Amino acid sequence: MKLGQLKKGDRALILSIDTEREHKETLLANGLSAGTTVQVANVSRIYGMMYLRIGSRNLALRIARTRQIEVNKI
Amino acid sequence: MASIICVGNPNVGKSSLFNLLTGANQKVANFAGVTVQEAAGKFLGHDILDLPGLRSVWSGSPDEQVSINALKGILREQKSILYVANGLQLDDSLLLFSQLADLKLPMAMVINFEDEMAKARIKIDHVALAERLGCPVILMNSRSGKGLDTLSDIIANGLFRIPSSFCRSMYDEWRGDELINRLDDRFRDTDVNLDNDDFDVERDFLRRKMLIQSVLEDNLDQPATNSPVSPGTSVADEWALHPLWGSLMFLGVLLVVFQMIFTVAAYPMDWIDAAFARLGGAMNGVTGIGWLDSLITEGIIPGIAGVVIFIPQIALLFFLIGILESTGYMMRISYLSDRLLRKFGLSGSSVVPLLSGMACSIPAIMSARSIKNPIERLAVIMVTPFMTCSARLPVYIILIALIVPDERWAIFHARGLALLGMYLLGIIASLLFALLWKQLKSQKSKSLWILDLPAYRSPHWRLIFMSVYRKTKTFVLQAGKVIFVVSILLWLLASHSPRGDKFFERKLAENTTTLEAEASLRLEYSYAGYMGKAIEPAIRPLGYDWKIGIALLSSFAAREVFVGSLSTIYAIGTEEEMTVANRLRSEMRPDGSARYDLATAISLLLFYAFALQCVSTVATTRQETGSWKWAILQFVAMTGIAYLAALLAYQLLS
């Protein structure tokens, strides 16, 4: 399933990231790589944002981008 | 003495540590991208360089490129690296550390936020970690200075060490110049590295991550990973980022800020205004030399009063913005506004430069370096001067006071609401011109925006007060110098005339005159009067007379000069002790109606809302875009829009 399909409170393991090459580095540098566990702290359809907890960091991604990340719900 | 370079991820407290070491006053706030250019200082005789935050050596925004270029430089110069890590996010911080370790330069690592680590029950065996990494590791709190003695010892005795091969990953066999070549390739063409058979970014990151995990498993003791490090942040964000309450909270914050600027600052402002009026009276005739008394009481004192009187409001604005920045709330505004801003060709990453523009456009335009998308960055640079900067505040306050009654509507101060309206006008103008820009420079944005939401922190009061003091002092000194010179110049031009005494004797003999009428006549036929009259045909349709024309001309390079200039112009030839506001209020047209009526005041407010009367902003746009083309376009467009808006307003309202 895609990261964008997760709901608030869900935890998942990132399986792969399918994005432009230049963006992959940015995602990796921010801790989003295959094998990383993420927790969805909030999903806001109105603001188009997904609030993620990755390790000790809080990150927000546009929901459109989260559809490029394949995850396995834990 | 050796040079030391401060490197680390964004928002880990590098600038805070740099300030602690060097006694500098670099801007510090609780979000990523605060530092966008190098800063240099000295500690124990060593040169210390503070760099913008960097997520990885493969990062690519303009501010990160400053750091990459500096890193390339230190490879050649063999400087030491003081690596600053976030103790709450060590897994994250060690990624860049492992990349820098590949440079094989002497390093030491500061693990910052020792106090917050204790609160979050994170324990680290920093001695064992130092042994594992092969370089000194210091636990620190850069706010309180805890750990500074140990760091001082390391710097003083040159105890920096090249990290052990353990934390260097796949590049052990590389030499420094090979790494430089790879970094150069990264910025020439991203594909070069990624297509290279022997290098894959993802594989590299994963390898480093495994390495980091093994290091932390042995040395770090922290609560389960599924519990948030800062539970308070999670609870606060439930409200701050809520679809309804989040937006209302943001509007409430803006409302409180502008209400406070009028209500709280009104008292000291009145005291200062009255004090300057009394000072003017007391200084009258004090030297016994006519022209000197006139220069002091009609030139210098009213001119300086025109800027000093606004210190409380400007300081309060800086203070309130400082609180928003230091708590971490600014990033929540980015979260709330990203979707809306995208409709205008901007994004959540434009929020910090735009909101910083409420203080001053110059650092705001520079902070756009943190925006990766070049088209969005240029758009932000072009529209940021529409945001209401602190130099507009004196003009707004004096004009609003002339047309809005000093009363409350329910719990709201009427003038505070009017001021909020002017700030919202600045925001709307920025967005509309960003939209226009989007149409002109149409390109589908491919930028990836990741928003780092820092844990909320209580405001660091000492740093906020220091920042308020520094910014207010800069404003007053810079504006004060210009106003001082302009006041003297204006007094000279307004007190002297190309006409001789006989001309005035004849003119005065023709009319029955009062002292005020005589003063007005002398001003009208002064050099300044002639200048004002020369541009009067162009500004009369906006509702301005030649006296306002003089103030407009004098404030073209710096808008804050306007009030001081008006104050000086209306003080020429008068003996009465009057406050700045009363001088404007008592100014009449020839038909006996108020000079500053609603139509004229609104026209002036709109002119100052849109006109780019700031030479420093023009220079900064030139510097940041690398072209005069954009700077001139910005100046001409904003001045043209200001003229048209003022013209329309006056013609409709008069």
Compact summary:
The complex is a heterodimer of chains A (74) and B (654). Chain A has two helices and five strands, in the order βαβββαβ. By secondary structure, chain A is of the alpha+beta class.
Shape of chain B: elongated
**What is the C-alpha radius of gyration of chain A, as a whole number of Å?**
11 Å
Strand content of chain B: 5-15%
As a percent range, the share of strand residues of chain A is 35-45%
- Which outline of chain A best applies? globular
Strand order, sheet with most strands of chain A? 4-3-2-1-5
Taking pLDDT < 50 over at least 5 consecutive residues as the criterion, the unreliable ranges of chain B are: 170-176, 185-198
Span between termini of chain B? 69 Å
Number of helices of chain B: 29
Q: What radius of gyration of chain B results from the CA coordinates? A: 29 Å
* Distance between the amino and carboxyl termini of chain A: 12 Å
- Tell me what the CATH architecture of chain A is: Roll
Features:
heterodimer; A: 74 residues; alpha+beta; SH3 type barrels; 2 helices; 43% strand; globular; B: 654 residues; alpha/beta; Rossmann fold; six-stranded mixed β-sheet; two-stranded antiparallel sheet; 29 helices; 11 strands; 62% helix; 7% strand; elongated
